[in-house]
Specification:
454 residues; alpha/beta; 16 helices; homodimer; 13% strand; four-stranded antiparallel sheet
Chain lengths: 454, 454
């Protein structure tokens, strides 16, 4: 091997598995990709974005600040609007859902108000280049090489790429239909404690709404239980164990429709748990619900983490593009954003319905699949003996039939405690047209019929 | 101290010194800041950006790709336009300057063409969120904790912040009026070799045009000499030693004017040195010459570094905002960019001239100062016994008189081989109005007269 000047990180950083899938797609022009996490192209807000940008750039007075450097933590107006947006999302979830009868509203109102003011303060809010950048910054700010991050099993595979490149280890916690298996988490934490490894555990990474890849939403009770468990083990860890709640898909929820399985309750974020301000890192984004080409995400962070992450972000780029921030601020303040999200929710509801009908029609009955209540993905599970990975017969036959999915195995962390399941698939309705969803699922169904029903 | 979960990096990352200066500025509304590296607000291309964005977003066909995810390495059209832009900059420099008689054009033309095609290939070009992000990515991809980076003395202080946060050491090489003191660099490399530390040396960080903070431009001969020296020590290092050429200010050059000291030659980049494609990392930006609120920078990188950096960038943010990239591509292709840069060069030429006249009128003769030929900064040197740092009499008196500069000492790396000079100042004409430049320099001159002439 030629000598290289690369750092350990530079050597470890590998091509994300999804890139390989994209390349495969490019070489087959007739291929229908149900793999990419791209959002719906047709509903991208071209006219809305143009209108908002014309307002921002209508005069030197409004335009110059958008074209100049800003603050590392983000534009003051956008931070205020975002904090308020988030407070409303949680408030709406609290009042509209079954939590109206939970302990949340039993607290003295004035106390809650004070806590809410602290929780949803713009001072704790950092604007980032998509929420992806926040995930990277958190890993940098909290973890040294060899540290351990707790994740769902399976989880968002780009996050696993961050861990791998930075020399971090994952411990994977089983998922149930309403989120984490908390008993499993407790066993993992106990075992880490016994082995003296708790001091290496810095945070839990939770994709809380319509999880990528499974579509699972973690219930509020489980968020509460999770925070309680982490707190319980902090003394032995010797430091705080944070909960990083990645709510990237939160606003892509499906509105109620008789023919779709709809959750009556969209849980509030973990921020709504009393005392959460000290332990919850909330990662949100405007990219997925507005336009993925406009990379604006954000985080709400406890101190001293907020300050550390802001300093690291200063070294990365001293702040996300002001033009993009002013665009989003304008879209939020004018109502453009809210109206777009409402339209988008309807569109995804419909596309998910189209996919559900196609799956019901074409998939063999031995394939178990989960209907999401939001987000971009269906999750399907084949019999355990039938692998779906890149080298499997299912994958190669699907590719030959011009349809692509994400093999489930790439969503599983390296964890010595279990074998990676390799019989699942993530199927996205995000970017495909209705026709392609129907045709893609028909092709995939045919492949599955051929291989499973013999 | 309370126990913290922060990583070593998270603990080391500190507030950049410039933030402190900005805060000081905010609390004094009448203060004239000659400190910030902000660009000229009045000439920000508000109407141009609006026109370009209206073109990009004129229809779903053109608008949707700008609002969708893109490739991690950058938009294909922008990468092509940027590579061509860069080739032209170097070609223009080669033919317009004294290099017409140098060895460059003595090479066989066909050979050069082939090498140029490789050097300025879009395949080697990575789009980043400002060139700042590229600097961070390079440090990540090449350096492990404890590694050594060679820098100019003084250098860009935000880069020093990157090194400090990542636990890297700097070795500082003396600057002369035409760039590096190569003999000093050779002594440093020899001494590192003797101590067995060469294997820790990964790259040289050079701000090659109108350097921040001194305004110095490195001559082409010195770039050639620098590459030769680095190459000479590679065998003992056991790996390549790269040259990271930060050309952030390159396009902010002053056109010729009788009353200004103008360089007859703008040197080509280090890329133009034969064989440079394997060792030079070129960092450029559209933010400073177009709009700093539009954070689009780029790098040209040798393999295998290109691939490693692309993977790390994928983990950071999977690609810079497509909307910003389409805006810049449109501005480049339509001529908007070129016309704006020409206007900007005239404006900075004028502002630098205003500052020069004011300095000539108000500064005591014991202050030595360097006239830049581009960029945003003057560099002034007081007698060695008169400190200019944040706790100095000069600084506090200047602040009392409502004028702010950047103390020279923050631009010097921690280097045990010398004491940090602390008697200099960086004075920027970037964002101040003409009137403020005149009044700011008058105030600063009065402070210097009071303290120096007694």
């Amino acid at each position: 091997m030629k000598p290289s000047a690369l750092s350990a990180l530079g050597q470890r950083a590998t091509e994300p598995p999804i890139s390989w899938l994209m390349h495969a797609a490019l070489s087959r022009p007739k291929l229908i990709s149900l793999a990419a996490g791209f959002t719906d192209s047709v509903s991208l807000p071209v006219a809305d974005a143009r209108a908002a940008l014309n307002r921002v750039l209508r005069s030197p007075r409004t335009g110059r600040p958008a074209l100049q450097y800003g603050f590392t933590a983000g534009d003051t107006v956008l931070r205020k609007l975002t904090a308020e947006h988030l407070r409303k999302l949680d408030f709406h979830a609290r009042t509209a859902s079954s939590f109206s009868s939970s302990s949340l509203v039993l607290e003295p109102k004035s106390g809650m108000k004070n806590e809410d003011e602290k929780k949803y303060s713009p001072e704790r809010l950092l604007v980032t280049s998509g929420s992806q950048q926040l995930l990277y910054l958190i890993a940098e700010a909290l973890c040294d090489e060899g540290d351990i991050v707790l994740v769902e099993d399976p989880t968002y595979f780009v996050f696993l790429g961050i861990l791998q490149s930075r020399g971090l280890h994952a411990r994977a916690v089983r998922l149930e239909r309403d989120g984490l298996d908390l008993a499993h988490l407790e066993r993992i934490l106990t075992s880490l404690k016994c082995r003296g490894e708790l001091r290496r555990v810095k945070f839990f990474y939770l994709v809380s709404y319509y999880q990528n890849p499974t579509g699972v939403t973690t219930s509020f009770e489980k968020k509460r239980g999770l925070l309680k468990l982490l707190k319980k083990f902090e003394r032995d860890a010797g430091h705080p164990i944070y909960l990083l709640e990645d709510a990237a898909y939160r606003e892509l929820c499906f509105p109620g429709r008789a023919d779709l399985p709809v959750s009556p309750t969209i849980p509030p974020s973990a921020q709504a748990v009393p005392g959460a301000a000290e332990r919850v890192i909330y990662a949100g984004t405007f990219s997925k619900p507005f336009a993925t080409g406009v990379r604006v995400g954000y985080g709400i962070l406890p101190q001293p983490l907020f300050t550390a992450v802001k300093h690291i972000k200063g070294n990365h780029d001293f702040g996300t593009s002001n033009l993009l921030q002013h665009l989003i601020a304008r879209a939020l303040a004018s109502g453009i954003y809210g109206r777009h999200v409402a339209r988008l929710q309807k569109r995804y509801t419909h596309k998910a319905h189209v996919m559900k009908l196609a799956i019901e029609e074409h998939f063999p009955s031995s394939v178990e699949w989960w209907k999401p209540e939001g987000g971009l993905y269906f999750w399907a599970r084949l019999p355990k003996t039938v692998p779906t990975g890149i080298k499997s017969k299912v994958f190669s036959t699907a590719l030959k039939n011009d349809v692509l999915y994400v093999p489930g195995e790439i969503c599983y962390a390296e964890d010595p405690a279990r074998r990676k399941p390799n019989h699942e698939m993530r199927i996205s309705f995000g970017n495909a047209t209705e026709k392609d969803i129907q045709e893609g699922i028909r092709r995939l169904g045919k492949v599955l019929q051929e291989i499973l029903v013999q």
